[in-house]
Predict the 3D structure of the following.
Amino acid sequence: MRTRKQIALSISLLVAVLLVAAPSRAQTPEAPAADTDIRIGNVMPYTGPLAAFATIGRAEAAYFDMINERGGINGRKIRFTSVDDSSNPKTALEQTRDLVEKQNVLLMFGSFGTPSNLAVRTYLNEKQVPQLFVASGDEEWAHPRTYPWTMGWQPTFRAEGRIYANYIQAAYPDRKIAVLWQNDQFGRDLFRGLQEGLGDTAGMIVADLAFDASETAIQVQVGILKDSGADILVFDGAPAIAARAIRVAAELDWHPVFILDNASASIASALRPAGLQNALGVISTSFLKDASDASWKEDPHIKAWLDFMDKYFPDGDKDDLYAVFGYAAADTLVQVLRQCGDGLSRENVMRQAASLDYQSPIALPGIVIKTGPKDFRPIKQMRLVQFDGTAWQPIGDVVDSAFAKVKDDN
């Protein structure tokens, strides 16, 4: 019988979480059993404005179920405990403390969001508990000297912004740009990268407007940006607002070159709600394979992912980018644990995480997961893609020139 995912809930959140049916695979806490299991903690927004990203946690849980059914890691089963923080940093800290001090997890893995992870980073580093493969593209997860127990996973938001700038300069050098960005660290980082990438041509940005992640209406902002005369709209925010922005632009009969941040490039969570016909031609970035792309239909790794979805995550949406993201992130952690062998100390976990040179089966060709003692940025490459009405199609080659070099004293 394979181990099921645990949902450890605080008393104050119990009723709310049950009502929204967050995935529940609860087990009664036990004393650590290092010889038989590997305890992993995770914090996700199963409720709240960013609940679309909870698919990441569900996919990770399903992946670990698959690994356990196949015998686990070096004879040990993974016990994955994922809890809800509703994107509240205070709740994230409380839940993380519980996972470390009461659930006795070996490490924290893949917790979502910049504010929640910043809230727990100092605590985890003081406790010397690995904070691995943070589900956020902030640059704060790559400071091995200051925070040696914290490591990111995906490319940074700032570098993504530079990639869009480079693309605009090459393809649309004389077009006016409008930016609709989320008023938080995520939004500011990508906008900053866009401005840096444009450099002396940053004057091409004729208008920008910010919005809060909790907002539900975007009509006024899109209308103002249309009136600016911009030919290009760079959207930088969460998928629910992205869907509304795409749909509203179409309703206003405004058809700019629409550039969509990677975090919202989910067909299931953003493009389909926007109306696939409205999303035709949208440009974004990717570093993972798109299972809906017919060019991958014979790829053995995509076939394996589809089988995984059918068997271990049947309620998941195969068009949901976050299901692929969770699968790939969990696969990376499994690679680290396998490299650990029988040495499952927290120190060895970090040592192995900082010595990766790995081609994920679900990553795009040419994109490698590579780290070092002074390099806590596992994925440094992306590829521009364009939505053709059904799937994301690549534009050009893998891009890594927009990424800043790693400093020795970071």
Summary: The longest helix spans residues 321-340. The chain has a mean pLDDT of 89. The chain is about 40% helix and 15% strand. The radius of gyration is 21 Å.
